[in-house]
Amino acid sequence: MAKNSSSEGRGPSQRQLRVGELIRRTLSEVLVRDELHDPDVTRMSITVGEVRITPDLSIATCFVLPLGGKNKEDAVALLARHKWELRKIIGRKAGLKHAPDLRFRVDTTFDQMDATRAMLSDERVQSDVAKSDTEDGDPT
Q1: Where is the composition biased (Basic and acidic residues) (predicted)?
Q2: Which of the four, 52, 101, 104, 124, has the lowest number of CB atoms within 10 Å?
Q3: pLDDT digit string (tens) for 75-132?
């Protein structure tokens, strides 16, 4: 029990990061090479931004976004429909003894970056930044 409480609040382990990245690359490769043989998936260019995996490596949450950001929910639904086939392909290609259950979510990273960019370009923020820069540079 002490082991679990000491690991709470920490980020993912090296093993989680390594397996997550392996799954991300493999899934991206499968989607680029149209290995699902589904015309609906083939028509979409889907980016796999990140894969987060549980500490026991049993569940992999894949953050995906179709090119252009349109039909996000459709892309997630299509991939979810093929999750067992994808799991089998990923397990085989990545050489995993036990392929994790795949969950698909919309990747909101780009939306967050756009919101941050918009916030930083706001006049009030720019004036605050300029004001703090002059205060930091003032030796008195």
Answers
A1: 121-134
A2: 124
A3: 999 999 999 999 999 999 999 989 999 999 998 876 566 566 666 777 776 777 777 6
Q: Could you state, in order of their start, the residue ranges of all structural domains in the chain?
A: 2-107, 108-140
The number of angstroms, rounded, from the C-alpha of 24 to the middle of its chain's C-alpha atoms is: 8
> Token pair 């499968």 is at which residue?
30
> Would you say 41 and 83 are in contact if contact means Cβ atoms under 8 Å apart?
no
Pairing relationship of beta strands 101-106 and 59-66 according to DSSP bridges: parallel
Contact predicate 43/35, CB 8 Å: no
Q: What is the DSSP string of 21-90?
A: HHHHHHHHHHHHTTTT--HHHHHS-EEEEEEEE-TTS-EEEEEEEEGGGTTHHHHHHHHHHTHHHHHHHH
In DSSP terms, 59 is beta-bridged to 101
Whether the full predicted model's pTM is greater than 0.70, yes or no, is yes
